[in-house]
Amino acid sequence: MTKETMTVHKALAEIKILKDRIQSEIYNSIFVSCKKNSQSKISGMDVDEYEKIITGCYDKDVDLMSRLEALQRAVMLSNAVTKVKIKIGENEEERTVAETINMKNNSMMFKRQMLDRMQQQLSQAQAKTNKENEILESKSENYVTGLFGQKEGKTSTDEVTKAKQQYIDLNTWALIDPINVQNKIRVLSDEISSFEAEVDSVLSTSNALTTVTIEY
User: Fold this and answer.
1) Which of 49, 98, 210, 214 could be cross-linked to 45 through a Cys-Cys bond (beta carbons 3.0 to 4.6 Å apart)?
2) Residues of the domain holding 105
3) pLDDT digits over 156-185, tens only?
């Protein structure tokens, strides 16, 4: 039984190294082989010696995987109970490390996608509205000309003005914005930027100060 205490920072660094090492060790390990009964050696070695190599490969790989599992388990359990303070928007909130990591890797990703989509749609809607309204004056002139053009001198100015205004009122473009999207964009942008500005520092500090004990 091995028992060892270390910081989370050290555990995470070793986890990264172990993953690469285990893959390499498994790839280069020999777990079984074969030979003819008439052969006394395998790859130039006595059978007993070769069997020790097979056993050694297996034991080494299992030991490395056991250590990796112990490290990962210790970090996971620590992250579930260790708390940090993180700024989200205008508020500073207390979250577990596990919650904070999940926010960084998942929640904030979706919030950024939502922010990008809202900004894109607002820009497109504003551009469309402005474009249509900019040409509305000339379109209204063409409308009343077509409507009253043949009645010049017989149509009052009030009738023309009224018809033109009715056309403008019916054809003016406006945003459909029940959620006040500009405000939602501002709030969400502040939340994302404040979180991303300090999350790595907060997690790094916590990992450097928090210790875990592994047993395997």
Assistant:
1) 49
2) 99-205
3) 788 888 888 988 888 999 999 999 999 999
